[in-house]
Design a protein that fits this description.
By secondary structure, the chain is an alpha+beta fold. The protein has helices at residues 5-40, 46-69, 103-116, 118-152, 154-157, 178-183, 185-214, 218-272, 277-305, 308-325, 342-361, 398-406, 436-439, 450-487, 502-535; strands at residues 92-94, 97-99, 168-170, 173-175, 329-335, 367-375, 378-385, 412-416, 423-430. The protein has 15 helices and 9 strands. A hairpin with a 2-residue loop joins strand 1 and strand 2.
Amino acid sequence: MSRLRPYVTAQGRAVVLVALAAVEVVAQAVMLGSLVLGFGLGLLFLFPWGVAAARGTAGAARALTGRWTGRPIPEPYLPAPPHPLPGPDGRYRHLGISYRSPALPEFFERVHRLLSDRATWRDTLWLIADPVVGLALAVLPLLTVGYGLFGMALPLLWDPSYPGDTLVDYAGVEVASQDTALALVPVGAALCALGLWAGPRAMALHGRWTRSLLAPARASELALQVAELDQKRTAATDWQAAEVRRIERDLHDGPQARLVALGMTVSAAEELVDTDPAAAKVLLRQAQDSSSAVLRELRGLVRGIHPPVLAERGLGDAVRALALDSALDVRVEVDLRGQLPDPVQSAAYFAVAEILANAGKHAGADRVDIDLWHRDGVLRATVTDDGRGGAAPTAGGGLRGVERRIKPFDGVLAVSSPEGGPTTVAVEIPCPLGDECCDTQPAGGAGAGGPRRLAGRGELWLTALAPVVCSVALFPQGLVAGTLLVFGTDNRSWFLALYLPEPLRWPTVLAMVALGLAGVRPLLRRWRKGGARQGC
């Protein structure tokens, strides 16, 4: 049954696509109507509604295709325009016109952004074309399976009380007897198998078709990357400014005050060294103690900037050192087979340190489990405590600081902390280990762009045309024609072999079967390569 599951699942997905095609027709009417009414009759406020309907339908198609193929399709839309700012006179201006309220300038800017976004028109093109292309890819396997099941059921539908009458015309053959109905059962079974076999292939083709129109275009990718880099730069700048303020505050409140007191103590000892040497010695001992305390505070401050153990022994031993210094019962499991970049190590270390400190100060935990491991190019740190729970990354809290620290590295923070505990905080930072950094190649590089793109197009045409040619040669012109030759029917229909002279009929049938079988193996090899590439 597990082998049949992909084929049955493909038929179910085809039914979903048929239902989606009906929704696409409605969204298409709304989108085209908003274009006509908005720009033809001046009802411009309808245009954003039409775009919202188109984007909602396209988003559903992206979600389905991403879930079915295992490769999510990101949204390709340009970011929303910034809110308009008032001028010195408190009014808002757009295209030389002054407005008292920001509503109209914001609306016009939004319409302009929707019109200039290429993804809007790609969605519109997809809404027009997919009810035809997508519906054909979904319906053909369904109809083939249904037609095959009907052929297999012909003997059950035949009524002997109507001798000589024709029950139906099936696959170009008039079913006028029980024997003919029985002879067509293998044809129905073959068509049913063909429909099941073609189902996953048709769904793969539909996924490529959807991705070709609904995936982000190059301009949208660049705009989204610029917006994301802006956010990361802002987060990194804010975090650096906060770190500088923290260091300044620590220096002002700690070592600076102690150094001032140390200078005053040495000055007092200098005044007493001639008149009261014993008191001067006491003051000098106090100054020595103060200098030792200042040194300890400076070492702690340096450790807060970049711990020496992290630089000397790596992330795993640095986290173990944290566990030894903690008053809690901490268990550490480390599985890191390689060297991480220093910035990533630092971000992960301070994230774990902050989470561990929160477990002791706020959660009232007794035991903490820390797991560090690296898989599939992602560094993961999981901290679980048995505290009271209820943790959340609120503004100004330690967890929000952890988010800011890992955001420049595309890091993700996930918190699970029900009331009553336990609390689990997971940190994920994308980062290859060791030489994996050198193995990555830019997607737009010269070595990866052109040939791979051409190979994808050739594969798409081969995947689209070869199944049709091979299946026509193998089943109708080969097996079905051979079945009719065996039973000696007079109905030649559209089978090529039946129109040829008697000596050439069987060689033609065998040649058609051989042609169909010859195309199966290259197709399977091509699909396996495509599946392996998608898996990578």
